[in-house]
Design a protein that fits this description.
Mean pLDDT: 96
Strand content: 5-15%
Shape: globular
Largest sheet: 8 strands, parallel
Radius of gyration: 17 Å
CATH architecture: Alpha-Beta Barrel
Structural class: alpha/beta
Number of strands: 8
Order of helices and strands: EHEHEHEHEHEHEHEHH
CATH superfamily: Metal-dependent hydrolases
Number of domains: 1
Distance between the termini: 14 Å
Helix content: 25-40%
CATH topology: TIM Barrel
Number of helices: 9
Bound molecules: zinc ion
Strand order of the largest sheet: 1-2-3-4-5-6-7-8
Length: 258
């Protein structure tokens, strides 16, 4: 089965990219969508991603990082011209659904670039109080007005909302253009949610059709995340067809690829 990791970051550690590619090759992950969130998240920046996708065009899909309130639509346009296929968004200056941000979402829709929205509480270097980061700006329901206004824009709610699982799940149930990933550290929200049982939130028939595989961990934890996700899908008897949607087809369709 083809596997695409829809949520990875390029950390600014020595040999990180080589280690990531090596891990993906070893575990049958064909490609990954990769973004750089800059120093605050111990990552490279968009320029670093540009270099990486040029070095590994068949293994990496570039996700352009924007911080709403600091980026303009023209940044997304330039990124698209430079080969970025997706947009990654976190730590907005105002809530995601602030009307002043709508031109960003409108352009992403026009360029057919899916958006990966961080939702829930964030971890940054030293908490960065000067950045005035608020998870309330990144509540899953902040995505509802965007989903309504831009029906052809495909969106992924990262981490199924972290601690707002119910809101994230109900939104993906109700909105055809909203999906979620179950990414995150093995000991984080996933441990809690798996302990209760992910079907507590993903309760309806076909819920897993709206899930996109993503890891969002350091490269050496990727094998564990992949194994846990495979085991979970088997446990819930998710059939081959639906597993294909989760592991590759959903994200490829959003990217306009096959
Ligand atoms: Zn992330």
């Amino acid at each position: 089965m083809r596997i695409i990791d829809a949520h990875t970051h390029l950390f600014d550690y020595p040999n990180y990219l080589e280690n990531l590619i090596k891990t993906n090759d070893e575990y049958g992950i064909e490609k990954c969508c990769i973004s750089g969130l800059g120093k605050l998240f111990m990552c490279v920046d968009n320029e670093g991603i540009k270099a990486a996708i040029n070095n590994y065009p068949n293994k990496l899909i570039g996700a352009f990082y924007i911080r709403p309130g600091e980026n303009e639509p023209k940044d997304i346009k330039n990124a698209h011209e430079e080969g970025f296929k997706m947009v990654k968004v976190t730590i907005p200056r105002k809530p995601y659904d602030d009307p002043s941000f709508f031109p960003l979402w409108e352009l992403a829709q026009e360029l057919k670039m899916p958006i990966l929205f961080h939702t829930g509480v964030v971890t940054t270097l030293n908490n960065a109080p000067e950045e005035r980061i608020s998870s309330w700006f990144m509540h899953p329901m902040r995505i509802e007005p965007i989903a309504n206004a831009f029906p052809d824009l495909n969106m992924i709610i990262a981490h199924l909302g972290v601690h707002w699982n119910e809101d994230a799940a109900e939104l993906i149930r109700m909105k055809p253009n909203v999906y979620a990933d179950l990414s995150g550290a093995p000991t984080g929200w996933r441990a809690r949610a798996d302990n209760i049982g992910m079907t507590h939130w993903l309760w309806w028939s076909g819920a897993f059709k709206k899930i996109v595989f993503g890891t969002d961990v350091i490269f050496n934890q990727i094998p564990q995340i992949l194994a846990e996700d495979k085991a979970r899908l088997d446990k819930f008897n998710i059939d081959q067809k639906n597993q294909e949607l989760i592991f590759s087809k959903n994200i490829l369709k959003m990217l306009g690829e096959r």
